[in-house]
């Protein structure tokens, strides 16, 4: 008998005849959080992650996209299929499409990516992508160093259960909470290791 088998045998003997404990399952569901103030809360939580956040009317989205890319000096930017073409008015930007699919090296060579999102979570400051129109495949937002994401106010759910209720569970999902960051055992923070170093979110009201 191996050590593992001996340990498991002792555990089984110790709990033999013990009643099954009742485990409460009163999880919080959709509608448990108030829907008021989700835009302000979402903006606050995203800023906590050291992301750039701007709240503006949707009518100013095209102008702000151009301004944000100019501030980054982004000359070559990936735009996924289905992204609103009316927002791509930046005069000095070369829009790079993902058809045929770009290689990792090609994605690494661009200055950034612009996307929409599927849903956002106010409570956690999280953006969720599901490869829908304007979002593209997962690599588009993980390889470039800069991600500019447009979130409409109506897409912001109060909490995670509310967001899950709006998502299709069979679609591939990427949950983004701020720029990519990690810390080693000495708590030295390093950004851009497994995703964009800079995340900018435009909240369109």
Automatic annotation (TrEMBL):
InterPro entries associated with the record: FTHF_cligase-like_sf, LUD_dom, NagB/RpiA_transferase-like
Pfam families in the cross-refs: LUD_dom (PF02589)
Domain LUD: 108-204
Domain of life: Bacteria
SUPFAM superfamilies documented for this protein: NagB/RpiA/CoA transferase-like
Listed name of the protein: LUD domain-containing protein
Species for this entry: Microbispora corallina
